[in-house]
Write a structure and sequence with these properties.
mainly alpha; 78% helix
Length: 438
Amino acid sequence: MLVDDGAWTRSRKQVLLLCALAIILDGLDNQILGFAIPSMMAEWGVTRSDFAPALALGYVGMTVGTPLGGFLGDRIGRKVALVGSVILFGLATAAIALAHGPSDISLYRFIAGLGLGGALPAATTLIAEFTPKHRRSLSVMLGIVCIPIGGMIGGLLAAQLLPAYGWRSLFVVSGLAPMLVAVILAFALPESPQYLLRRGADRRRLETSVRALGVAVPAGSHFVDQRGATVARASFGALFESDYRRSTLALWVAFFFCLLPVYVLYAWAPTLLTSKGIDVKLASLGLSLFNFGGVAGCIAAAWAIGRYGSRIGILTMAGAASLGAAILSVIPLSASSQSLLMPLLFVEGFFLLGAQGSLYALATHVYPTSIRSTGVGAAAGFGRAGAIVSAYIGSAALGYGSEAFFGVIVTCLVLTFIAVSVVNLHAASLRRQSYGHA
């Protein structure tokens, strides 16, 4: 129980920090196209619907890459899967700077999507497996909060670079940064000790990994993964064994209907706002506020899960997010309404992205070591299918106005609420956990 019951040492927190760097860049590269689309439309003389295939193919890449990355994380190592994914999405994002039309972007976004999808399950699994149990939900949420931080950074970059240097500069910056971080990860990030133990790694590698927990390793020590013995080998079929079937199906539905509205906003909110007479800089700021709200929301959700358990924490976030979207659907969108619109975007980000991040924390709790990365990747990958749908639903909803646009978000969040309530392997509150050990 070195992982579950140990102290949250400096070396463990360093793993969180390194994974957080990768997740920040995942969030940045994931959202950067949404900021650039209005400028691309103006330069190439195309319409927003011309970008729907490019957005969709990016999400197809993520839909394939997420479960594949999770599976590879269980088979070849969390660290290898993470470093490879970061390199892939960095190279493909940088290549978009050379694009000459939406068709070029479609190819590059698909390749980037493979890496963007693969990075997250590997990173969240590493974070979970280097964090003691009483801090695990908080630690995973601190990692997931880096997705909106990346989007927030993207908004700030777009506000500065687009007017001065054009949209291509965005992709140069957001493509080169991941490749630099990948080098850092390759040298500084340890592999999961639970993974190494399950895969029968040699004792030297295992001891090096255990020391990253901040634990001294006495000579002759014997290591055992107590929870990992329930499933012998990583496979997608193991997710549907009797212990996990109900939670797996409910998680997949929850991820789908939570990620769909997130990506509708990421991809189409800047276009919606600029179509209402709001300038590009202010529209970028609005999406940055949405992401900034998500940062606060993820931290609040982590506290709520620890205090009240994942069921109450996530249901509260999803319910409040649906109410916030309903309010956004009825207010007028214009430059003159920015004093109301901007705070509402912050609040919506708080609850919607807080709910999204909570689902990753829940998924790491549901599955044991041997299928944790596969389970997280499969759930998030199914959610990415919602992102594919968002490319077309968002574009279509824009044609019917802001009421339909935010109405889609309300509907999805209601379905997320229902799915989360069906999951039967929720994390208990810290209070209940402490009673259970008394």
